[in-house]
Amino acid sequence: MRPQVRPSEPEVLKANSQKWNDQWVKLKTGNPSASFSWYRIENQSARDLILPALREMNQRHCSFCDSFPLERQGEPIEHFRPKSDPRFLHLAYTWTNLPEVSRMLDRHPFRDFLNHEGV
User: Fold this and answer.
1) Is the pLDDT of residue 80 over 70?
2) Measured on CA atoms in the order 12, 46, 7, 97, is the torsion positive or negative?
3) What is the DSSP string of the chain?
4) pTM for the complete prediction?
5) Which whole-number Å values give the CA distances from 46 to 10, 32, 55, 119, in the listed order?
């Protein structure tokens, strides 16, 4: 992993993350099979609005496997604390819980770390 300094929280998250986290907790608690999606602000995905700050932080490298560059369309933003785990639902849209990662993460050993019981 590369050393990273997390930039300031993007305005879209400052303004909305608490509300979105509360909505996700309510949705997922009421319907455990509910699917996560990024909210939209003025016809733009919140994901797309926070990507520039994540790319600045990780210098266009995967936050876990150091894959480079991460500017292909659709590279995921993952969650350090899993958004589907009932213990961490309240962190789904929290800035400090969001790294940009490579699509290879699904096959990467860090996936086991992210889903470890003690995390």
Assistant:
1) yes
2) positive
3) -------PPPHHHHHHHHHHHHHHHHHHHH-TTPPP---EETTEEHHHHHHHHHHHHHTTS-TTT--S---STTPPB--SS-TTSTTTGGGTT-GGG--B--GGGGGSTHHHHHT-TT-
4) 0.73
5) 10, 23, 15, 26
Which pLDDT tens digit goes with each residue over 2-30? 566 777 889 999 999 999 999 999 999 99
Domain extents in the chain: 11-114
- Quote the tokens at residue 57: 């932080």
Residue count of the chain, please give it: 119
Task: Give me the residue label for tokens 């907790």.
Answer: 25
